[in-house]
UniProtKB/TrEMBL annotation:
The keyword Protease applies. Signal peptide: none annotated. Its EC number is 3.4.21.92. The keyword Transcription regulation does not apply. It holds the Pfam family RVT_1. This is ATP-dependent Clp protease protease subunit protein. Keywords: Hydrolase, Protease. CDD domains: RT_G2_intron. One of its GO terms (molecular function) is serine-type endopeptidase activity. It comes from Haloplasma contractile SSD-17B. GO terms for biological process: proteolysis. It is an enzyme of class 3 (hydrolase).
Length: 431
């Protein structure tokens, strides 16, 4: 039995009691396993150490790390802050890259926390959980609206969640299940390690870096107590009709049978989040009439067709099947589609001097990735649009390769249309 299996057995024996003495499971076996699981291509932190460098003296490095941990002399170093483009805007998204040793320790701690907290998480929570990916969340939300008594949707957004989570509350939520003070102190050290940006150190009195291995799980624990349990135990209990929630990380959508329940939830959500130093982004949060009877209800009031909402890159809209029955359908969120088209056209332009065979191969990899995510039931039109826009981008790029125009459109289609990966639906909402 390996070390993590021992924790699993401990959790099974103590489903309701706090778990004691878990820090000693951060040992030579688990740290070595963590090292072997690490991706050697990942960027390094401020230590400039990667997997290969650490591997060169692995035994000594692990022994040294354990020695410092036993003496409580181990201290995480600040994460290296970098910025990446935020899709669809001119803004940048901050990422925090931990040092290599800190990644090793965080990976082991994350595995331990997963074993301890996974049995507690509710079925309405998706994201950073085994086999509960974006498509599962999208399908769950779609099927809830399709099959349950849903007439109103609250499309909510938490403002700057990762930047504003409260350290004290995170520790309190971890303490709910773990009584090991050394383990709690380790989490506290990671939260307060700070960031290094352009050679300057910045403290982190609140928030946690996106990019840290342990951050997504701590966020799930945080929102399990702040949102999931509250919705299950309080909101649903005090609603006069049916009420449902689907959450993926910090993105969530709530569904209600009655408008007054939806409005009451929205009014109570604001102080609920404020209690834990969070707030909603009011400009991105709305209550809409949506569901089986929305079109008929709005038409009777002289209103237009039901509004839509977006979740995980998809736009949800009310429609009908070929038999005229109500259907919740999905399509690529237009803003996302526009950005994706711009990105692939820019990439083609920047790489147009590549060997044509290699260029086609690389484009097909990108098309395949797009289809695998956005190729969901009812969304064939949107992924076909992406395909043809990519085709046009390639046509324009190849004609720029020489001063003399190389192809007419008809000639280009004849030679290249069949070489690009054709759109395909990969995900069914019916299973």
């Amino acid at each position: 039995m390996n070390e993590l299996s021992k924790i699993r057995e401990l959790v099974k024996r103590n489903p309701h009691n706090k778990i004691q003495n878990v820090t000693h499971y951060i040992n030579r076996e688990t740290l070595t396993s963590s090292h072997h699981s690490m991706d050697a291509t990942k960027a390094s932190g401020i230590d400039n150490v990667g997997k290969d460098e650490y591997q060169s003296s692995l035994k000594d490095n692990i022994n040294n790390l354990l020695s410092r941990m036993k003496r409580q002399a181990y201290k995480p170093v600040p994460v290296r802050r970098v910025y990446i483009d935020k899709v669809g805007t001119k803004k940048k998204r901050p990422l925090g890259i931990p040092a290599y040793e800190d990644k090793l320790v965080q990976r082991v701690m994350t595995e331990m926390l997963n074993i301890i907290y996974e049995p507690m998480f509710l079925s309405t929570s998706y994201g950073f959980r085994k086999d509960l990916n974006c498509h599962k969340a999208v399908k769950a939300l779609r099927n809830t609206i399709q099959t349950k008594r849903v007439n109103y949707v609250v499309d909510a957004d938490i403002k700057g969640f990762f930047d504003n989570v409260d350290h004290n509350w995170i520790l309190e939520f971890v303490k709910y299940r773990i009584a090991d003070k050394r383990f709690i102190n380790l989490i506290d050290k990671f939260l307060k390690a700070g960031v290094m940006e352009q050679g300057k150190f910045h403290t982190t009195p609140f928030g946690q870096p996106q990019g840290g291995l342990i951050s997504p799980l701590l966020s799930n624990i945080y929102l399990h107590f702040v949102l999931d349990l509250w919705f299950e135990k309080v909101v649903k209990k005090n609603s006069r009709g049916e009420a449902y929630i689907v959450r993926y990380a910090d993105d969530f959508v709530c569904c209600f049978q009655y408008k007054d329940d939806a409005m009451r939830f929205y009014d109570n959500l604001i102080p609920r989040l404020n209690k834990f130093n969070l707030e909603i982004a009011e400009e991105k949060t709305k209550i809409i009439e949506f569901g089986r009877y929305a079109e008929t209800s709005r038409k009777a009031k002289g209103m237009k067709r039901p509004e839509t909402f977006n979740f995980l890159g998809f736009t949800f809209y009310c429609s009908k099947s070929v038999n005229g029955k109500f259907r919740v359908k999905l399509k690529t969120y237009l803003k996302k589609l526009t950005v994706k088209v711009k990105i692939i056209k820019k990439w083609i332009k920047e790489n147009m001097h590549m060997n044509v065979k290699d260029l086609i191969k690389r484009i097909n990899l990108r098309l395949g990735g797009h289809y695998r995510y956005y190729g969901i039931t009812d969304n064939f039109k949107s992924i076909t649009t992406f395909y043809y826009e990519t085709l046009k981008g390639l046509y324009k790029a190849l004609n720029r390769r020489s001063q003399k125009r190389s192809f007419t459109w008809d000639k280009f289609i004849k030679y290249f249309e069949y070489k690009l990966l054709k759109p395909k639906i990969h995900v069914s909402v019916f299973n």
